[in-house]
Amino acid sequence: MIDISAHGLNKYYGSNHVLRGVTLEIYKGEKVGLLGKNGSGKTTLFKVIAGDEPYDSGSISKASGKKVEILAQIPAFGEHDTVEDILRSSFAEIVETYEAMKKIEGDGTPSVLKRYGKLMEEYERLGGYEVETKIEKICNGMNIGDNMRNSLFQSLSGGEKTRVNLARILLRDCDILLLDEPTNHLDLASLSWLENFIKEFSGTVVVISHDRVFLDNVVSRIVEIEDGEANFYSGNYTFYVEEKERRYQTQAEQYKQQQRKIEQLETAIKRQRVWAAINPSNTGLAKRALAMEKRIEQMEKVDRPTTSRKMTEDFNSGGHAAKEVVSFDCVRKSYGSNVLLNDANLSIGRNDRIALIGANGCGKTTLLKMIMGEDACDSGTVKVSSNIKIAYMSQIIVFDDANATVLDTLRNIAPFPEEKLRSILARFRFKALDVVKKVGSLSGGEKSRLKLCLLMQNQANFLILDEPTNHLDIESREWIEDAVSDFSGTMLFISHDRFFLSQFASKIWSMKDGEITAFNGGFEDFLQTKSGAEQLRFA
After folding, report:
1. Which own/partner contact pairs does 327-331 have at CB distance under 8 Å and 24+ positions apart?
2. 456 or 339, which is more confident
């Protein structure tokens, strides 16, 4: 049974042709990954499917009676709404039925008793007796504790609001889930819980995600939006990568063979034309040349295959560092009653690659700031060796002058001729008019690419990254990975991107309840330990 069907779907934003005749079918119970570069039209397609965005031509339909929920922008809630209020708003019909029951409780007249019985049946049919269990299950999985549940929604951080909104969507009784970047702002335990939820969900799920491990674990089909058109891959993300490369190689060979054939025909045409000029009485020569030209025109041309341009510039290491880069000696750090570090004694050695993991809010970013001198410890000492030069990429990227252009921002730290500056920026997908954009107006992905570009110009030997791949499309994530892989210095990073963790971590620092447990080994090995299993436990 088809749950979602689109045929010849076209969507314009002004002169920008975002969706170009998109045709697709998604079947009941499928788990589909929707891929594409940032700005390719994925979110637009979601909004069109959900009925939140009009389209210009084509058709779209959903199975009759199916309820669709979309996780996209956070909706507006009342300034006095608590998280608990928002979560319970998912059960509006149940609450309405319950309130109606309360109003007539105690009235023993036959007509009222009959009305009460019908309301009770409706309450049970709607799942009213399961509400508390559902809320507890979702809150445990999304790491939404009692303190957050009692907080005003408007007082939460952007990441916390996203988690609450995702929880609200998951609590709603729907048949089709459209999830736009659901893994952003989730810790490792919540990530695994969400994977399990989607696997057990009986309805249809279409998910936009740049989390490659998440896609591998939950989807069975990939739809890629490229140049406004849909391409299909019958498998998870790993299959998609392999199949896309196979298709590229096949197309490249077909293109090469066709170009060789066209070249042979064009050479023969030129030869026929020369002979026809020498022998004008031989009209057959000109006819043969014309026939070959028509043959070329009538060929179904194979498009020249394109590949993503990989980053060719690497981080410049600042040279030799001390054997011990950073040391923590009996470090304590608290915010009120919340103890982040309790007598921590740790050290970071030269060329270590340490992944700092733990639940959201456990103090990971605070630890990074203490190393950089942006936050002080309550007691103890944090010592950074004197010959260490730090390159830091924060989770929230800002620039000194939001009104400066991309070109001027690079020029301020790298006073090269404009031609060389443009060449550097082009490797980070800032081309033509992109370089005169104001940095304050850049998207999250563009800011990350520009920050990475700036970091690469410094002679750093200690790289600190706070969620470096968050909000980036897969191509940009791969660019960062290419750059980081050749960095020869020390690295400390926070990440919930399990692909990034598996690729780069040689040591794991796991933060919980003010303690840091150090594990000497990679992320995959860490997951086999008791501590690692707890990080990924299902709530």
Report:
1. 327/381, 327/382, 327/383, 328/380, 328/381, 328/382, 329/380, 329/381, 329/382, 329/383, 330/379, 330/380, 330/381, 331/370, 331/377, 331/379, 331/380, 331/381, 331/382
2. 339
